[in-house]
Design goal:
The complex is a heterodimer of chains A (222) and B (109). Chain A has one domain (6-221): Alpha-Beta Horseshoe (Leucine-rich repeat, LRR (right-handed beta-alpha superhelix)). In chain A, 26% of the residues lie in helices and 21% in strands. Chain A has seven helices and ten strands. In chain A, the strands form two sheets. Chain A has an eight-stranded parallel sheet with strand order 1-2-3-4-5-6-7-8, with helices on one face. In chain A, a hairpin with a 2-residue loop joins β9 and β10. Chain A starts with 5 loop residues before the first strand and ends with a helix. The chains are: A alpha/beta (222), B alpha/beta (109).
């Protein structure tokens, strides 16, 4: 494996600034060898900055992107600078304090080969204003993992269902706590019934339990 | 129905929901049933009244083996003591364990 095949930027261990210092010319950096890129916390804010954009764009062969905004306010980081970061991205994992559906989906739809998506959130927004369904969908044929600590994943779930080719996931992992999410997640399972091979459901998160009738509906949908 | 693999993650001792769910499964393609109890809860469960529910689950999973050759799997998170997990599985799923029909597997997620 190449030395820089996996790169992680976080404040405690390895900072983007260190990378920029080591490789002052982004066009001549080893970033194009990187296949897995992880950016956490405030480093994500730094990476989204205009002055750092050239260095981040050099990671144009990344296949696995993991971004964590935990601990940041929802107005502190924008995912827009990461749109289309690499045309090769097949898996995307977001850990977010507050996920804005339209912003999350903007990122998802900027990666045409995306197969796997995971979202762990601690707070959701329901703002889908300004979002228009794109003419084509990413592949979305791998695994979908939705874990919500506070509930409210309905808006994001519905955006999956609105995609022109629909979601075609082979695996779905669900851990949601809000009763209002059960309808939309059931619809999602139903929407993938032709392709779904693995269903992973959790009975618990933050003290709320999955009602048996909901699980029955998941299984009936399959 | 293409569903091949069902995974039940349980953080509470009660497994009635799993029993109810399995009774509704009709997929002919189902190949694997995995139960992933929270390790701490699993250890405590031995002393709780829901013990009988696990024995019911034991019998139901045995039926899946008999009728569909579906071999159940119990997974536990990395870091849990394997001996504890083995003892709990033996106590809560006694018939499957006695017949050597349950796989106990450590995994990350």
């Amino acid at each position: 494996m190449y030395l820089f095949a996996r790169v992680t930027f976080n404040t405690r261990r390895f900072r983007i600034e260190s990378w920029m210092k080591a490789f002052p010319d982004p066009s001549n950096s080893p970033a194009h060898h990187t296949r897995s890129l992880t950016i956490h916390g405030r480093q994500l804010v730094t990476a989204a900055g205009a002055d750092v954009g050239r260095w981040i764009r050099a990671f144009h062969n990344v296949e696995h992107l993991h971004a964590g905004t935990r601990g940041l306010g929802d107005d502190q980081v924008s995912l827009v600078p990461f749109h289309g970061l690499s045309p090769s991205i097949r898996s995307l994992r977001l850990e977010s304090t507050h996920a804005r559906p339209s912003e999350v989906f903007g990122l998802i739809c900027s990666f045409p080969l995306l197969e796997d998506f995971a979202l762990l959130v601690f707070g959701y927004g329901d703002e889908v204003d300004g979002w228009s369904t794109p003419p084509t969908s990413p592949r979305l044929t791998g695994s979908l993992e939705l874990r919500s600590v506070v509930g409210g994943i309905g808006p994001i779930t519905r955006l999956f269902l609105d995609l022109p080719n629909g979601p075609n996931f082979a695996k779905i992992v669900l851990a949601c706590v809000d009763e209002t999410d059960f309808k939309s997640t059931t619809d999602l399972v139903l929407g993938c019934s032709d392709t779904l091979e693995t269903l992973n459901v959790s009975d618990y998160l933050q003290g709320v339990f999955l009602p048996v009738p909901v699980l029955d509906r998941y299984l009936t949908a399959c | 129905m293409k569903l091949k693999h069902l995974v039940f993650q349980c953080a509470r001792p009660n497994v009635q929901w799993i029993i109810a769910a399995l009774q509704t499964v009709e997929s002919k393609n189902l190949e694997q049933i995995t139960v992933r109890p929270d390790a701490d809860t699993f250890v405590r469960t031995i002393k709780e009244p829901v013990h009988q529910q696990w024995h019911d689950l034991d019998r139901l999973l045995l039926q899946f083996w008999t009728s569909h050759s579906i071999r159940p799997k119990v997974t536990y998170e990395t870091g849990a003591r394997r001996k504890d997990m083995r003892d709990c599985t033996q106590s809560l799923l006694p018939e499957l364990t006695r017949r050597g029909l349950v796989d106990l597997v450590e995994c990350d997620r």
